[in-house]
Amino acid sequence: MASVLAFQNLTLGYDRHPAVHHLSGEIGEGALLAVVGPNGAGKSTLLKGIVGVLSPLGGKISRNGVNAQDIAYLPQIAEIDRSFPISVFDLVAMGLWKHAGLLGGIGKADREKITIAIEAVGLRGFEHRPIGTLSGGQMQRALFARLLLQDARVILLDEPFASLDSKTVSDLLELVHRWHGEKRTVVAVLHDFELVKQHFPEALLLAREPVAWGNTAQTLSAENLLKARRMSEAFDDLAGICEDAA
Amino acid sequence: MYDLFIAPFAEFDFMRRALAGVIILSLSAAPIGIFLMLRRMSLAGDVMAHAILPGAALGFLVAGLDLFAMTVGGIAAGVTVAVAAGLVARFTELKEDAALAAFYLVSLALGVTLISLKGSNVDLFRVLFGSVLALDNATLLVIASFTTFSLFALALIWRPLVLECVDPGFLRSVSGSGTMVHLLFLALVVLNLVAAFHALGTLLAVGMMMLPAAAARFWTQDVTRMAAYSVLIGVVSGVGGLLVSFHFNLPTGPAVILTAGIFYALSVVLGPVGGLRKRLSPGRHLEA
Predict the structure, then answer these.
(1) Which of B160, B172, B223 shows the shortest C-beta gap to A53?
(2) What are the tens digits of pLDDT across the range A70-114?
(3) Which of B41, B157, B173, B220 should one mutate to test binding to chain A, selecting the residue with the greatest count of A CBs within 10 A?
(4) What Å distances lie between residue B141 and A166, A246, B17, B196, B260, CA to CA?
């Protein structure tokens, strides 16, 4: 399995404080990887680093033959302003950015694609609803439709199933499996260990520093989870400079 | 009918210029107001409007009531304050609203002081409340070119601007244009405020931006339509305000803004999207 993403002694963070500390490893093409760990463990930060929104404080991320356009990113739903006056159709249409850009037209074929994506996530009939009227589950479905349109080789999901009901979760998981079947690389930040064990063959357990990475059952062993839980959540304001650089 | 609506414009040259001025202003100021509102930056717009004053006042000190000097001064001061307020909010403990309030008070005081150094109360009145009825060709041309530029620029950044508001994380993942777009947007705000400043003065300039936008919010849940409605409300307020001021002999700038204010009040009460009427008598609940 060729690797699409590789981390070499990667440190990501804010104001020089590390949020992901000394991470090394590779994500293979077509991997279905769950990133788990306690709150503040650096999971979302890692995704932001992969997308390129955050530059490494140390080490590096190599994207092997993958450019920014090949990566689709689902932000945490809390980061989206749902009071903004925009319809489901227009929100989903943003998935065509790669192809339409600033000024490109959205033609008839594109409109069809958008409609198909909206139907695929079970939101037929909601096209012209303002996003402010959607429930949490419907909103997440709309965002998955946008991911479908992005048609990317690497898909990053930040807490895609947070506070969704089981029907929505299983519908969306079906899409994740479909992507996996299409040999796309999927990296998802998740909290539900049962769900991870059932659906994700590979897992990365982060507690700022990587605790374990590999086969899900081994990664999520009781011993590893205990180790992860011991991570202290707060940054140390008095922390010295980390000398453990490469 | 003719006497009421057409005659003032047909008979008086200055009314025709004023008419052109308010219509052109609305075309770009109102949609920009929509984005200020949706980004929760209404107060920032107000501050920038005041910030123009000391710059225009400096221009006035140097060159008197000179269009070019006051325009350049206004733009320079507007941009400076936009950047400075942003920096203070980002890099110090002061929250943005407090930083903005500080800039706005200082700008206003400084501007009034500078004007008073050389000018009379008439000049002061003119920069504070504008002179819609005294727009000359050169000023109209400045307003029109700013509007034209703004409309093209707005068309160019429309998509990333919308994305930046709804889902900034997604925009950053697909395009590095976020910061550029934000800066260009702020520049457009300043340009339009300077244009409006010539017609409505520093205290009322932001009115043509925010009142039509705030009113349009109550009529639709689609940002494109909202922008169109805001332009319509702006144009109607402008024309209505001119007529009211003409027939009742009221000061023109305030009449235009008051008319826009009436549209705003009507929208708050009657608007189908979150208006008071719907809230007070929602009707019986539906079946599904």
Answers:
(1) B172
(2) 999 999 988 899 999 999 999 999 999 888 877 888 889 999 999
(3) B173
(4) 62, 62, 11, 13, 24
